[in-house]
Amino acid sequence: MVVTGWVLLVQTNATVDATRIVVSQVRHGEFVEEIPVLGTVEPVKTVHLDAIEGGTVEEILAEDGSRVEKGDLILRLSNSSLLKETIGTESRLLENVNELRNTKMMLVEKSLLLRQERLDTAYRILELEKQAARYRAILARGGESVTEAEFESVTDELDYQRKRLEIVDQRIVQENELREQQMVQVDETAERVERNLATIQNILGYLDVRTPVSGNLSMQRIEVGQSIDKGTNIGQVDDLDAFKIRGEVDQHYAPRMAVGQQGRFEFDGETYELSVEKVYPDVQNDIFEVDFDFVLDKAPVGLKRGQTVQVIVSLSKGRRSMMVDKGSFYRDTNGSWVYVVDSDGKAARRVNVRIGRQNLRHFELLDGLSVGDWVITSAYDTFNDADRLHFDTALDLRERSR
After folding, report:
1. In the prediction, which pLDDT does 10 show?
2. What share of the chain is helix, strand, coil (3-state, %, to 5)?
3. Distance CA 74, CA 169 (A)
4. Domain presence at residue 386
5. pLDDT tens digits for 53-69?
6. Which residues contact 122 (CB under 8 A, 6 or more apart)?
7. Are residue 326 and residue 285 in the same domain, yes or no?
8. Looking at the structure, do residues 85 and 151 belong to the same domain, yes or no?
9. Residue 5 lies in a domain
10. How many CB atoms lie within 10 A of CB 142?
Protein backbone atom coordinates (compact mmCIF):
# COMPACT_ATOMS: atom_id res chain seq x y z
CA MET A 1 0.00 0.00 0.00
CA VAL A 2 1.38 3.46 -0.96
CA VAL A 3 0.55 6.50 1.11
CA THR A 4 1.05 9.87 -0.48
CA GLY A 5 1.35 12.94 1.85
CA TRP A 6 0.38 16.50 0.93
CA VAL A 7 1.45 19.67 2.75
CA LEU A 8 -1.02 22.50 2.34
CA LEU A 9 0.56 25.97 2.69
CA VAL A 10 -2.01 28.56 3.68
CA GLN A 11 -1.07 32.16 2.91
CA THR A 12 -2.52 34.76 5.29
CA ASN A 13 -3.60 38.17 4.05
CA ALA A 14 -4.51 41.48 5.65
CA THR A 15 -5.95 44.72 4.38
CA VAL A 16 -4.12 47.86 5.46
CA ASP A 17 -4.96 51.55 5.55
CA ALA A 18 -2.28 52.98 3.26
CA THR A 19 -2.36 56.35 5.00
CA ARG A 20 -1.19 54.81 8.27
CA ILE A 21 2.04 53.22 7.07
CA VAL A 22 5.52 54.61 6.45
CA VAL A 23 7.72 53.28 3.67
CA SER A 24 11.40 53.76 2.93
CA GLN A 25 13.41 52.94 -0.17
CA VAL A 26 16.54 50.78 -0.01
CA ARG A 27 19.57 52.69 -1.29
CA HIS A 28 23.33 52.70 -1.38
CA GLY A 29 25.13 55.32 0.66
CA GLU A 30 27.91 56.22 3.06
CA PHE A 31 27.16 54.29 6.23
CA VAL A 32 28.77 55.26 9.55
CA GLU A 33 27.88 53.28 12.65
CA GLU A 34 26.92 55.73 15.37
CA ILE A 35 25.36 55.55 18.83
CA PRO A 36 23.74 58.21 21.00
CA VAL A 37 25.37 58.79 24.38
CA LEU A 38 23.77 60.79 27.18
CA GLY A 39 26.33 63.23 28.53
CA THR A 40 26.59 65.70 31.40
CA VAL A 41 28.65 68.89 31.22
CA GLU A 42 31.38 68.95 33.87
CA PRO A 43 34.38 71.21 34.51
CA VAL A 44 37.69 69.84 33.26
CA LYS A 45 39.38 70.68 36.55
CA THR A 46 37.79 70.13 39.94
CA VAL A 47 39.76 70.48 43.19
CA HIS A 48 38.27 68.99 46.35
CA LEU A 49 38.70 70.90 49.61
CA ASP A 50 39.41 68.71 52.65
CA ALA A 51 40.25 69.85 56.18
CA ILE A 52 43.98 69.22 56.66
CA GLU A 53 43.51 69.74 60.40
CA GLY A 54 40.34 69.37 62.42
CA GLY A 55 38.79 72.05 64.58
CA THR A 56 35.77 74.16 65.42
CA VAL A 57 34.35 76.50 62.79
CA GLU A 58 34.97 80.08 63.96
CA GLU A 59 34.12 82.00 60.81
CA ILE A 60 32.74 81.35 57.30
CA LEU A 61 34.07 83.86 54.79
CA ALA A 62 32.71 82.58 51.45
CA GLU A 63 29.31 81.50 50.20
CA ASP A 64 28.32 78.42 48.26
CA GLY A 65 28.30 79.13 44.52
CA SER A 66 30.49 82.21 44.77
CA ARG A 67 33.49 82.96 42.55
CA VAL A 68 36.80 82.61 44.43
CA GLU A 69 40.40 83.35 43.58
CA LYS A 70 43.44 81.25 44.41
CA GLY A 71 44.45 81.79 48.04
CA ASP A 72 41.11 83.23 49.19
CA LEU A 73 40.26 82.47 52.83
CA ILE A 74 36.91 80.68 52.94
CA LEU A 75 36.85 79.12 56.41
CA ARG A 76 38.61 79.71 59.74
CA LEU A 77 38.91 76.95 62.35
CA SER A 78 40.19 76.92 65.93
CA ASN A 79 41.82 74.04 67.82
CA SER A 80 43.20 74.72 71.32
CA SER A 81 44.67 71.23 71.70
CA LEU A 82 46.51 71.55 68.41
CA LEU A 83 47.77 75.01 69.42
CA LYS A 84 49.14 73.70 72.72
CA GLU A 85 50.76 70.68 71.06
CA THR A 86 52.26 72.85 68.34
CA ILE A 87 53.79 75.30 70.83
CA GLY A 88 55.33 72.42 72.81
CA THR A 89 56.78 70.78 69.72
CA GLU A 90 58.09 74.12 68.43
CA SER A 91 59.88 74.74 71.76
CA ARG A 92 61.60 71.35 71.62
CA LEU A 93 62.69 71.91 68.05
CA LEU A 94 64.10 75.33 68.93
CA GLU A 95 66.12 73.69 71.73
CA ASN A 96 67.48 71.22 69.19
CA VAL A 97 68.44 74.07 66.89
CA ASN A 98 70.36 75.78 69.69
CA GLU A 99 72.13 72.53 70.61
CA LEU A 100 73.18 72.00 67.01
CA ARG A 101 74.49 75.55 66.79
CA ASN A 102 76.51 75.03 69.99
CA THR A 103 77.91 71.78 68.60
CA LYS A 104 78.98 73.57 65.45
CA MET A 105 80.65 76.32 67.47
CA MET A 106 82.51 73.73 69.57
CA LEU A 107 83.85 72.04 66.45
CA VAL A 108 85.06 75.36 65.09
CA GLU A 109 86.59 76.31 68.45
CA LYS A 110 88.42 72.98 68.68
CA SER A 111 89.86 73.54 65.22
CA LEU A 112 91.05 77.01 66.22
CA LEU A 113 92.70 75.65 69.38
CA LEU A 114 94.64 73.07 67.35
CA ARG A 115 95.78 75.75 64.92
CA GLN A 116 96.86 77.91 67.84
CA GLU A 117 98.76 74.98 69.36
CA ARG A 118 100.56 74.38 66.06
CA LEU A 119 101.38 78.07 65.76
CA ASP A 120 102.85 78.16 69.29
CA THR A 121 104.87 74.98 68.67
CA ALA A 122 106.23 76.26 65.37
CA TYR A 123 107.21 79.55 67.00
CA ARG A 124 108.94 77.70 69.85
CA ILE A 125 110.88 75.59 67.35
CA LEU A 126 112.00 78.77 65.56
CA GLU A 127 113.27 80.25 68.85
CA LEU A 128 115.09 77.03 69.81
CA GLU A 129 116.72 76.79 66.37
CA LYS A 130 118.08 80.32 66.74
CA GLN A 131 119.25 79.62 70.32
CA ALA A 132 120.95 76.35 69.34
CA ALA A 133 122.71 78.15 66.48
CA ARG A 134 124.05 80.80 68.87
CA TYR A 135 125.20 78.20 71.40
CA ARG A 136 126.89 76.19 68.68
CA ALA A 137 128.79 79.27 67.48
CA ILE A 138 129.94 80.16 71.01
CA LEU A 139 131.13 76.62 71.73
CA ALA A 140 132.95 76.54 68.38
CA ARG A 141 134.93 79.68 69.37
CA GLY A 142 135.81 78.09 72.72
CA GLY A 143 133.74 80.52 74.71
CA GLU A 144 132.91 79.72 78.26
CA SER A 145 129.54 81.56 78.51
CA VAL A 146 127.70 78.43 77.34
CA THR A 147 128.22 74.94 78.62
CA GLU A 148 127.80 71.70 76.74
CA ALA A 149 124.96 70.81 79.09
CA GLU A 150 123.07 73.98 78.19
CA PHE A 151 123.58 73.34 74.48
CA GLU A 152 122.41 69.75 74.88
CA SER A 153 119.31 70.91 76.79
CA VAL A 154 118.38 73.28 73.95
CA THR A 155 118.83 70.64 71.24
CA ASP A 156 116.86 68.09 73.25
CA GLU A 157 113.91 70.48 73.58
CA LEU A 158 114.23 71.33 69.87
CA ASP A 159 113.89 67.64 68.99
CA TYR A 160 110.91 67.37 71.33
CA GLN A 161 109.14 70.35 69.80
CA ARG A 162 109.71 69.07 66.27
CA LYS A 163 108.20 65.71 67.15
CA ARG A 164 105.38 67.49 68.90
CA LEU A 165 104.72 69.54 65.74
CA GLU A 166 104.46 66.34 63.70
CA ILE A 167 101.89 64.99 66.15
CA VAL A 168 99.95 68.26 66.09
CA ASP A 169 99.92 68.16 62.26
CA GLN A 170 98.60 64.60 62.34
CA ARG A 171 95.92 65.63 64.84
CA ILE A 172 94.95 68.54 62.62
CA VAL A 173 94.53 66.25 59.58
CA GLN A 174 92.47 63.77 61.59
CA GLU A 175 90.41 66.47 63.25
CA ASN A 176 89.76 68.18 59.91
CA GLU A 177 88.39 64.94 58.42
CA LEU A 178 86.31 64.25 61.52
CA ARG A 179 85.12 67.85 61.70
CA GLU A 180 84.01 67.79 58.05
CA GLN A 181 81.97 64.63 58.65
CA GLN A 182 80.50 66.05 61.83
CA MET A 183 79.76 69.37 60.14
CA VAL A 184 77.86 67.57 57.35
CA GLN A 185 75.87 65.60 59.91
CA VAL A 186 75.17 68.72 61.94
CA ASP A 187 74.08 70.67 58.84
CA GLU A 188 71.81 67.83 57.65
CA THR A 189 70.28 67.48 61.09
CA ALA A 190 69.83 71.24 61.30
CA GLU A 191 68.06 71.28 57.92
CA ARG A 192 65.71 68.50 59.04
CA VAL A 193 64.97 70.34 62.27
CA GLU A 194 64.37 73.58 60.34
CA ARG A 195 61.99 71.77 57.96
CA ASN A 196 60.16 70.20 60.88
CA LEU A 197 59.99 73.59 62.52
CA ALA A 198 58.53 75.12 59.35
CA THR A 199 56.01 72.26 59.14
CA ILE A 200 54.98 72.79 62.74
CA GLN A 201 54.57 76.50 62.12
CA ASN A 202 52.44 75.72 59.01
CA ILE A 203 50.13 73.41 60.93
CA LEU A 204 48.41 76.32 62.59
CA GLY A 205 48.07 77.88 59.14
CA TYR A 206 46.04 74.86 58.08
CA LEU A 207 43.27 76.04 60.38
CA ASP A 208 42.71 78.78 57.82
CA VAL A 209 41.14 76.96 54.86
CA ARG A 210 42.08 78.65 51.58
CA THR A 211 41.24 77.88 47.95
CA PRO A 212 44.13 76.24 46.04
CA VAL A 213 42.83 77.41 42.65
CA SER A 214 40.48 80.01 41.20
CA GLY A 215 36.98 78.98 40.18
CA ASN A 216 33.43 78.41 41.36
CA LEU A 217 33.05 77.33 45.00
CA SER A 218 30.67 74.56 46.06
CA MET A 219 30.54 74.10 49.84
CA GLN A 220 29.06 71.48 52.11
CA ARG A 221 26.49 72.65 54.64
CA ILE A 222 28.68 74.09 57.39
CA GLU A 223 27.72 76.26 60.36
CA VAL A 224 29.70 78.36 62.84
CA GLY A 225 30.48 76.31 65.95
CA GLN A 226 30.39 73.03 64.06
CA SER A 227 33.19 70.54 64.79
CA ILE A 228 35.05 69.33 61.71
CA ASP A 229 37.32 66.29 61.80
CA LYS A 230 40.65 66.08 60.02
CA GLY A 231 40.14 64.98 56.40
CA THR A 232 36.48 66.05 56.26
CA ASN A 233 35.40 67.27 52.84
CA ILE A 234 34.46 70.94 52.98
CA GLY A 235 33.58 71.43 49.32
CA GLN A 236 35.17 71.80 45.91
CA VAL A 237 36.34 74.45 43.46
CA ASP A 238 35.43 74.03 39.79
CA ASP A 239 37.32 75.74 37.00
CA LEU A 240 34.46 76.99 34.85
CA ASP A 241 36.76 78.27 32.12
CA ALA A 242 37.04 74.79 30.57
CA PHE A 243 34.45 72.02 30.28
CA LYS A 244 34.32 68.35 29.38
CA ILE A 245 31.37 66.01 28.87
CA ARG A 246 31.00 62.87 30.99
CA GLY A 247 29.05 60.28 28.99
CA GLU A 248 27.27 57.07 30.03
CA VAL A 249 27.67 54.20 27.55
CA ASP A 250 26.04 50.76 27.46
CA GLN A 251 28.59 48.06 28.33
CA HIS A 252 27.76 46.36 25.00
CA TYR A 253 29.97 48.97 23.32
CA ALA A 254 32.87 48.74 25.77
CA PRO A 255 35.18 46.79 23.39
CA ARG A 256 34.63 49.40 20.68
CA MET A 257 35.18 52.53 22.75
CA ALA A 258 38.72 53.92 22.85
CA VAL A 259 40.64 57.12 23.48
CA GLY A 260 40.60 59.34 20.39
CA GLN A 261 37.17 58.19 19.19
CA GLN A 262 35.22 61.02 17.59
CA GLY A 263 31.83 62.41 18.57
CA ARG A 264 29.69 65.48 18.19
CA PHE A 265 26.73 67.26 19.71
CA GLU A 266 24.52 70.17 18.84
CA PHE A 267 24.08 73.25 20.98
CA ASP A 268 22.22 76.43 20.13
CA GLY A 269 22.06 75.50 16.44
CA GLU A 270 25.79 74.73 16.14
CA THR A 271 27.60 71.38 15.92
CA TYR A 272 30.63 70.89 18.18
CA GLU A 273 33.25 68.20 17.63
CA LEU A 274 34.37 66.00 20.53
CA SER A 275 37.07 63.41 21.15
CA VAL A 276 37.15 60.63 23.75
CA GLU A 277 39.80 61.62 26.30
CA LYS A 278 39.35 58.85 28.87
CA VAL A 279 37.47 55.56 29.17
CA TYR A 280 36.63 54.42 32.70
CA PRO A 281 36.86 50.63 33.06
CA ASP A 282 34.38 50.26 35.93
CA VAL A 283 30.91 49.03 34.93
CA GLN A 284 27.91 49.74 37.14
CA ASN A 285 24.33 48.81 36.26
CA ASP A 286 25.51 47.81 32.76
CA ILE A 287 26.92 51.31 32.18
CA PHE A 288 30.50 52.58 31.91
CA GLU A 289 31.64 56.19 31.62
CA VAL A 290 33.79 58.12 29.18
CA ASP A 291 35.12 61.68 29.15
CA PHE A 292 34.82 63.78 25.98
CA ASP A 293 37.05 66.79 25.36
CA PHE A 294 36.23 69.56 22.93
CA VAL A 295 38.32 69.44 19.76
CA LEU A 296 40.54 72.55 19.63
CA ASP A 297 39.11 73.50 23.08
CA LYS A 298 36.13 75.04 21.31
CA ALA A 299 33.44 74.91 24.00
CA PRO A 300 30.19 76.72 23.19
CA VAL A 301 29.38 79.96 24.96
CA GLY A 302 26.49 79.51 27.37
CA LEU A 303 27.22 75.89 28.25
CA LYS A 304 26.68 75.32 31.97
CA ARG A 305 27.88 72.76 34.48
CA GLY A 306 25.33 69.95 34.99
CA GLN A 307 23.65 70.53 31.63
CA THR A 308 22.59 67.34 29.79
CA VAL A 309 23.45 66.86 26.12
CA GLN A 310 23.21 64.02 23.60
CA VAL A 311 26.55 63.06 22.08
CA ILE A 312 26.66 61.14 18.80
CA VAL A 313 29.68 58.82 18.85
CA SER A 314 31.11 57.29 15.68
CA LEU A 315 32.03 53.63 16.13
CA SER A 316 33.37 53.09 12.61
CA LYS A 317 34.62 54.90 9.55
CA GLY A 318 32.21 55.50 6.69
CA ARG A 319 31.84 52.87 3.97
CA ARG A 320 29.49 52.30 1.05
CA SER A 321 26.63 50.04 2.16
CA MET A 322 23.05 49.18 1.32
CA MET A 323 20.73 50.75 3.90
CA VAL A 324 17.15 51.54 4.82
CA ASP A 325 15.60 54.06 7.20
CA LYS A 326 15.12 52.99 10.81
CA GLY A 327 11.59 52.43 12.04
CA SER A 328 9.35 50.66 14.54
CA PHE A 329 9.24 47.49 12.45
CA TYR A 330 12.51 46.34 14.01
CA ARG A 331 10.83 46.02 17.39
CA ASP A 332 8.23 43.66 15.93
CA THR A 333 10.53 41.46 13.81
CA ASN A 334 13.88 41.86 15.53
CA GLY A 335 15.20 42.63 12.08
CA SER A 336 14.69 39.09 10.72
CA TRP A 337 12.09 40.01 8.08
CA VAL A 338 10.30 43.00 6.54
CA TYR A 339 7.34 43.81 4.31
CA VAL A 340 8.47 44.77 0.77
CA VAL A 341 6.00 46.76 -1.35
CA ASP A 342 5.18 45.37 -4.80
CA SER A 343 6.23 47.48 -7.76
CA ASP A 344 2.59 48.50 -8.48
CA GLY A 345 2.18 49.84 -4.93
CA LYS A 346 -0.98 47.81 -4.29
CA ALA A 347 0.38 45.21 -1.86
CA ALA A 348 3.40 44.10 0.18
CA ARG A 349 4.94 40.70 0.91
CA ARG A 350 7.05 39.25 3.73
CA VAL A 351 10.75 38.89 2.91
CA ASN A 352 13.45 37.47 5.15
CA VAL A 353 16.40 39.83 5.56
CA ARG A 354 19.67 40.10 7.43
CA ILE A 355 20.40 43.43 9.12
CA GLY A 356 23.90 44.42 10.19
CA ARG A 357 24.93 47.58 11.95
CA GLN A 358 22.80 50.60 12.70
CA ASN A 359 23.12 54.29 13.40
CA LEU A 360 20.64 56.94 14.43
CA ARG A 361 18.86 57.01 11.06
CA HIS A 362 19.58 53.79 9.17
CA PHE A 363 19.91 50.03 9.33
CA GLU A 364 22.67 48.41 7.28
CA LEU A 365 21.22 45.69 5.00
CA LEU A 366 23.39 42.63 4.44
CA ASP A 367 21.04 40.28 2.58
CA GLY A 368 17.47 39.80 1.29
CA LEU A 369 16.81 43.12 -0.44
CA SER A 370 17.96 45.10 -3.44
CA VAL A 371 18.58 48.77 -4.06
CA GLY A 372 15.28 50.42 -5.05
CA ASP A 373 13.04 48.12 -2.98
CA TRP A 374 10.39 49.83 -0.88
CA VAL A 375 10.11 48.63 2.73
CA ILE A 376 7.37 49.32 5.27
CA THR A 377 9.31 50.75 8.22
CA SER A 378 6.41 51.64 10.52
CA ALA A 379 5.12 49.25 13.21
CA TYR A 380 3.84 45.77 12.24
CA ASP A 381 1.92 45.01 15.44
CA THR A 382 -1.53 45.39 13.77
CA PHE A 383 -0.73 43.13 10.80
CA ASN A 384 -0.93 39.87 12.77
CA ASP A 385 2.20 38.56 11.00
CA ALA A 386 0.26 38.27 7.71
CA ASP A 387 2.19 36.91 4.74
CA ARG A 388 0.76 39.52 2.42
CA LEU A 389 -0.68 42.98 2.90
CA HIS A 390 -3.21 44.65 0.58
CA PHE A 391 -3.52 48.43 0.65
CA ASP A 392 -6.92 50.04 0.46
CA THR A 393 -5.30 52.65 -1.79
CA ALA A 394 -2.32 51.98 -4.01
CA LEU A 395 0.93 53.71 -3.03
CA ASP A 396 2.40 56.08 -5.61
CA LEU A 397 5.99 54.87 -5.37
CA ARG A 398 7.08 56.92 -8.37
CA GLU A 399 6.01 60.12 -6.63
CA ARG A 400 7.78 59.10 -3.42
CA SER A 401 11.01 58.51 -5.35
CA ARG A 402 11.21 62.13 -6.46
Report:
1. 67
2. 35, 35, 30
3. 65
4. yes
5. 888 888 888 888 888 88
6. 165
7. no
8. yes
9. no
10. 6
